[in-house]
Fold these 4 entries.
Entry 1:
Amino acid sequence: MRLKHIALTASLLTPLALTAAGAGAEEKHDHDHEHRQHDAHVHGIAALNLALEGEEVHIELDSPAANIVGFEHAPSSEADHAAVDKAVATLKKGDQLFRFNNEAGCRMEKADVTSALLNDEHDDHGDKHSDDHDHEKKGEHEHEEHEGEETHSDIEAVYHFECDQPSKLKQVRIELFEAFPATERLNVQYVIESKQGAVELSAKDHIVKF
């Protein structure tokens, strides 16, 4: 997942990488600072990377969980788990979330969704008694943590599309805003052959033109 992210954004981030060369210990500090800045403006904002490599289109979506499921804590109730399940099912329908112009003949081949929320949900299949006890302790800990600092969780989705006529790929209509209304802004970076760029999308302007 992380390696794919680096591969997709390498050409976009090369200038930054060159500038940062030799930064040493400052790199982690800058990353943490950037992460804190992202957290400070987390609700309503998501990021998307798109790259065309040959006949393949790779898309990465990184969004605060609050935009997708309405909360960022570990799911604990039936309603929480239902919200996560519904969100994952919707996210996996990449052919409905990303609509390329018909001439390109693009079709989704694979979609993967990852999140700490899913890991917590998976852990619920363990020993019931032990789980209840652990969840009670965890709940108390999270409550104390919530009083001091808000918990942040992300949901990431990676998509792989195959296009019959990649040279005819001219635009993609992104339907995330309709599927997840809490998403107010989407920061998109793209690399299409020799073209690269960035655009900010909203519910009223949700088409990326290459």
Note: DSSP finds eight helices and nine strands in the chain.
Entry 2:
Amino acid sequence: MKGIKGLILFGFLAFLSSCFEPPEYENSPVATFNSIEFKVTPELADADSLIIYVDFRDGDGDMGLDDSYRSDPYHERNFFYEDLGSENNIKAVGTILQAVNRPPYPTTIPMIVTPPTGKLVTNRTRNKPGFETLPPFSSATVDCQDYTIQYLLIAPAAKNSIDETYAIVDTLRDQSQNEYYLLNDTTYFETNLNHYNILVRFFESNGGPYTEFSWEEELCSTFNGRYPILTDKTNTPLEGTIRYSMVSAGFIPLFSIKNLKLEVTVKDRAFNQSTFTTPEFTLDKIRVN
């Protein structure tokens, strides 16, 4: 299964209609199943497409995300501070996406600005009293689960979350000479599901009870994604259909003749959400070519 890693892509197409009568919709979206289809490419090595059509309506039209929504609360990953006495003794911390003009570093880097409740959680934190329940570090899952090695900026307000034991690779300064510490350490993280506005879970069966197939755990991948902003108008009721295409070479090797169901959640920018489950299907029964 590991050989399928990375062969996942997304595609979106929305068919919209605006409501010209006074809206009767709630501001929370309502999403319902329309249809699903499976398209197979001629070459065995090429990726196939599983496409779901989602009907939706929303009272205020705040549907969709673009690249301007990359900072807290839409950031991609939660990092953590030590916080003894809280749940699991750690506290989630969001980031803002900071532009950086310092080659060879990336042009944008996530930055923590929240004042700390304790030190930033890394793979070493598990060795401290009270943090033994943190998962152990594994090089096989680094950057997929639990721990990542990536550039991370620490803003002046958060500087007490680190010390000389952290892997500080540079110190950057703004026009006021405030210091920003650039880390490239092994930090603990969890995916922030608010980064996505469509979530897809797969459930499979060989004739018995359904069990979830986790793309994250099996292949370090996800079919959670984003559909784009659907209107530039504010407080405009919308209804229509979102075409959400999931592309992978893994569908037939993984699921072949298995029964499948998808659980799909659609969210608006205020994080209101609507969830439905598709009818049971097999890939062969929904194949369209």
Note: The chain has a mean pLDDT of 91.
Entry 3:
Amino acid sequence: MSATIFPTNVTIYDPEKCWNGYTVFQASMQRAKDVGAVLIDMNGNIVNQWKGLDGFPNKILPGGYVMGSTGIRNPEYGFQDMLDLVQVDWDGNVVWSFNQYEQIKDPGHKKKWMARQHHDYQRQGNTVGYYAPDTAPMIDKGNTLILCHKNLKNPRISEKPLVDDTFIEITWDGRIIWEWICSDHFDEMGFSEEAKNAMARNPAVKPAGGGVGDWMHINSMSTLGPNKWFDQGDERFHPDNIIWDGRQTNIIAIISKDTGKIVWQVGPDYIATAALRRLGQIIGQHHAHMIPRGLPGEGNILVFDNGGWAGYGAPNPGSPTGVDYALRDYSRVLEFDPTTLEIVWQYTPTEAGYRIPYYASRFYSGHISSAQRMPNGNTLITEGSQCRVFEVTPKHEIVWEYISPYQSPTARSNMIYRAYRLPYHWIPQVEKPEEKAIPRLDNNKFRVPGSLRKKPLKVTRFQKAQKAIYEVQHCVIAKDVD
């Protein structure tokens, strides 16, 4: 947001065109303990709030349960490590928890077990963590797939210590039965020599623990689930296989659950084939997943292509070191066919009504953010760094918009990592709320009370002359010139 003061809460709502339900999100990316996880209705009213429950992300399960974490590791020693992953009931009571991935002794702290979970997790029964017909996550049994961190060294990547990404699968009682380590598959990822050189010098080093390379930065991970591609005989899309995306490398990939090997990938560069060039360079993306069966677009890949800064490559004017060498100052939401890479649907500044490149940054979140496909074909988009969640129709009409009012106590920021829409019947504790339309405001007429002038200001002869000179100099009298 460029304005320092702007309206918050729900600003647009068309009940007839929305897929109506509740929306859950973590109210402060700065971990404000007095806010926590928030569940709102379509009019922005708070339905429930779980104070102190961090969300990386928060997800609602049927029956009014919510998942998240009750603590985060001291950032001086750990980068984005959550202490535990928990499931709490409607009243905030912990009914399930996991922290037994690694035992850590940080300076000045007692030794303790940590989950080191970050960015994503999936409960068995549902592939992507959001509502899809006939695929509800389990609430009192089942395995959980968790995205975690592990510190290690891998000289093929860099001599510097790394904070690597791992996937683990745990049983309901917390036993780890499967693990996948990202850096083990470095040679499968197709990095250029320029990229390898840049990464070796600086694998996206973060200051935690004296400096660790967050070389890949995976931010989403989910199973594919049943899909038409596998039904047609394409083994790459086995329902148990796992799709993930690496923000720092611009990679989206699918691994075999059986072998751990990469069986499908786009990135890190998008120029090798005509299909990749049509798809366009994806930069710093979040929440790449396969749209689940039963939803419009099922089988396609949906991703929030952030833009911003990411990737490794040859040094260039925007990146003298070759780190974060790909740059773009606007975002895209892409839905594409994973077999042809054809874009099936998109939401970019063009669809938002902003001229590229002049006003493209008006739809822009350089980090965090997500996209969810809903049963009526609408898409819920989290423009995270702009504290905005909005719902658009297949024809790109905004039919619901929410601006978070929860500002961090330590930074002037209302960021939202990821929001999810869920059906009313998943929350039996309350009755379905009344849905009241909120028409779009006319910005030409909207004013803060007390800010209207009763009389127009006088324009002096000098001001008129200045205006005439400006118009001649900038050719605005004749026509609009690019």
Note: The first helix runs from residue 193 to 201.
Entry 4:
Amino acid sequence: MAPKVGYLLPTREAIMEGRPAAAPLLTLAEKAEDLGYDSIWIGDSITARPRHEPITLLAAAAGRTKRVSLGTAVLLPALRNPVVLAHQVATLDQASEGRVILGVGIAADVANIHDEFRAVGVPFEKRVGTMLEGLRLCQALWSGEPVDWDGRWKLTGQSVGPIPHTKGGPPIWGGGSRPASLTRAAKNFDGWFPTGPSDSSVWGEQWRDVQAQVKAQGRDSDAFTGAIYLTLALDDDAAKANAKVDAFLESYYMQPASRLRTWQACYGGPAEGAAEWLKGFADQGCEHIMLRFAGDHDRHLEAFAKVRESLGW
């Protein structure tokens, strides 16, 4: 089966370049839907890598689109009170009539993200447990039944309304490609959504590991989604395209591109090479490919639509 293809809105780049208006981003979302993309995604950060707040902007995108799924790539649930988050996500899922996918992660271990967690009053070293408990509490609230909870948060017979359009809440996909991330996704989530590696065969090995762990948990591996988050620049001049990717990564993360490329899947070069690279992930069983373009979004949206057509997807 051909994988679904998604597109990351450039919220981070818009803020970095002093273009905070939301209207152009929503126009890109509409264009992606018109070109046949299957999903629209928005990243998350508050102070470390400032950008538009994803739940809010996805709600606006829900009103401007009709078909595409609306996802977070990835949300950092630990930065948010889960009772408030459950309410926001349920409302978004109702507004979009069940089109939400929650990609979630724990955040990278770097100084500015430590500062971000400190700014919102969440201990960075407890971020994994905070995220997992928070998401379990969200799911309990999404049931529509009164919730009693005695943990990091305290609830006594409380509920939120509305509940999500999707029964039990939207699917949750866990990010990360380290062994602990694979195990966490297989045990707790509905999909696995890493940012790499660039070698599709290595992704395939990890995917089979995840599937085996899902089965070992007594869960249905056929109902579990394998996805990937890719960064690319299309240009007939491969050197020029890769220079764009490197400059993009370094401005986005403020780290050397050579380091970032060790764990982020990236491609720079002509469309034919991109098609072959992407086919590699599909052949390994990837079911949903999310694309982050290194600039030139209108051109890239159109160019990749042709790449997809050439693949018969």
Note: The CA atoms of residues 130 and 152 lie 8 Å apart.
